[in-house]
Amino acid sequence: MSAGDEFIMPVLKPDAVAEMHLHALRQISDSLSATNNSLATLANDVKDVRERVIRMEGEDVKGDLREVKADLRAACKRLDDLETIRDRQAGALSVGGWLSKYFPWLFGLAATAAAAVGWKT
């Protein structure tokens, strides 16, 4: 063998070709295995990120829901206050309406009672 034959694999022999194919397949298998491991790690990372995003969105929704509930409570309190004011105004108007309707009769009754008491004494 010459010095050049030591570094170059002979490809004319069937055993050498089969060995070369086997070596190439091993390299491809190792590369695929490394790629699969990387993909599994990446899939776990993506799953973790997805869970974190879901959790963050859930917290945002909870915060928004709390804000909406607080706004609703404030609006209900304001509505109750306005209804109370309206009821007071309606009550005052109804008393005023009742007095304006029956005041002449009440005045007449009071005057009659005063006259009757005055006549007795």
Descriptive terms for the model:
121 residues, mainly alpha, 88% helix
Order of helices and strands: H
Number of discrete helical segments: 1
> In whole angstroms, how far apart are the ends?
161 Å
What overall geometry do the principal axes of the alpha carbons give?
rod-shaped
What is the share of helical residues?
A: over 70%
Overall residue-averaged pLDDT value: 83
The percent range for strand residues is: under 5%
Query: How large is the radius of gyration?
Result: 49 Å
Number of strands: 0
The class by helix and strand makeup works out as: mainly alpha
Describe the main β-sheet briefly. Answer: none
Low-confidence stretches: none
Task: Report on the architecture of this protein.
The chain has one helix and no strands. With 121 residues, the chain is an all-alpha fold.
Topology:
Layout: H1 14-120
Summarize the structure.
The protein has 121 residues and is mostly helical. It has 1 helix and no strands.
